[in-house]
Amino acid sequence: MNSLISSLDSAGSRTRRNNAGSVAPAPAADTRATPLALPEASTPRGPAASGWRYSNQLNEQLTSAQRALGFVDGLTGQLEQLKTDLSQQLTQRRIDREGLEAKIDRFAEALSQRHAQSGGSVDGNLRFHLAADARQNFTVRGMELDNLRKGSPETLALFSGERGTAAMSLSVGGDISEDDIMRRLNRTLAPSGIRPFVNDDGQLSFSVAESDWPAIRDRLTVRGGGIRFPSGQPQRVKTVAESERLSSSDWQVADHANVRQTLQRVVSALSQLRQAHSAIASAIEEARHSIDQLSRMGEQSWAEEFVADFNARLNQSGDYRSFLDVVPALLGLSRYRVISLLSI
Q1: CA-based end-to-end distance of the chain
Q2: Phi, psi at residue 198, to the nearest 5°?
Q3: Domains of the chain, first to last
Q4: How far apart are CA 173 and CA 162, in angstroms?
Q5: pTM given for the model
Q6: Sign of CA dihedral 249, 254, 255, 256
Q7: Which of 75, 94, 151, 205 is the most buried if burial means most Cβ atoms within 10 Å?
Q8: Nearest Cα residue to 183 out of 170, 165, 167, 166
């Protein structure tokens, strides 16, 4: 059952890192030529249809994963050809600048289609998200941990800019702990879909679904009490997006020195794409294994094992961050809704 949980757990909690739901690179065979079909035993046939609903969900995720694999492999193919051309140009007297620049432009155009071509399952850091819920990480000027924790108390009112939504109020200052400020941020920002986290550098960062990022980037405003942010009319905050891991903006081919430098960057980019390919392929194989398991498992057995694994995950040692993935799912969940669901 662990393989199923890890396949579905595309947003595992981490103590000091973004819980954006990435799948770590792992060696795996190339799955491009393998069709994504449900095992025959997992199709619904009365009482023997054990686990079919869950297998069907995983199969949809597999389809998304194959789109991601196709996107990554398409970029890899372009870079392999560019690498060959750059190597050949280094042995010639004259550089075919126009030809090389055209190939770099085509690669940049393909890279810009990342979200659409991967179905939202590959983010800007080439991390793979099995649930196709890639997120954009960003920071907000003026919202640093120390700035929000220390100093005089102040109430901030944040506005997502979405019509009809109320202000999100947040009390800061007063020398509160890091855990307290993160709890408050999570509770305040959860309705907007924004998730706060502490990045690898120990800095306060935020993430939002990539599809929601343009609106958050352009409309997020804050009103303070005149301590950290001005009072009066809400002011638009300065958001800084996390830079994408792969970019060709500085690939130059004007002369042999430029070509040599660009070749090194292309080789590095190819290594990153191969790691992404391995991560996606590994996740695909794990999900397929889960489908096979579910096709042979009764729904009651599945439910019992899932509940046991879920409880173990929530009861693991650690701090409140282990609950970050669960809180958004529980918003608006009332006793009446639970009873209605159980009565089906």
Answers
A1: 25
A2: -100, 120
A3: 2-131+252-342 (1.20.1330), 142-237 (no CATH)
A4: 27
A5: 0.66
A6: positive
A7: 75
A8: 170
Burial class (CB in 10 A: 0-12, 13-18, 19+), 203: exposed
pLDDT single digits (tens) 252-282 = 999 999 999 999 999 999 999 999 999 999 9
Per-residue tokens: 304: 């019992």
- DSSP, collapsed to helix, strand or coil, labels residue 207 as strand
What distance in Å separates the CA atoms of residue 98 and residue 268, rounded to the nearest whole number?
23
Q: Are 297 and 306 in contact (CB under 8 A)?
A: no
Token pair listed for 206: 């935020």
Give the other-Cβ count within 10 Å of 310's Cβ: 12
Task: Specify the residue for token string 């007297």.
Answer: 93
Please provide residue 263's backbone torsions phi and psi, each rounded to the nearest 5 degrees. Answer: -60, -40
The interaxial angle of helices 97-112 and 52-90, nearest 10 deg, is: 170
96: helix, coil or strand?
coil
Report pLDDT digits (tens) over 208-264.
999 999 999 999 999 999 999 999 999 999 999 999 999 999 999 999 999 999 999
Asked if residue 3 lies in contact with residue 293, where contact means CB atoms within 8 angstroms, the answer is yes
CA distance 161 to 238: 14
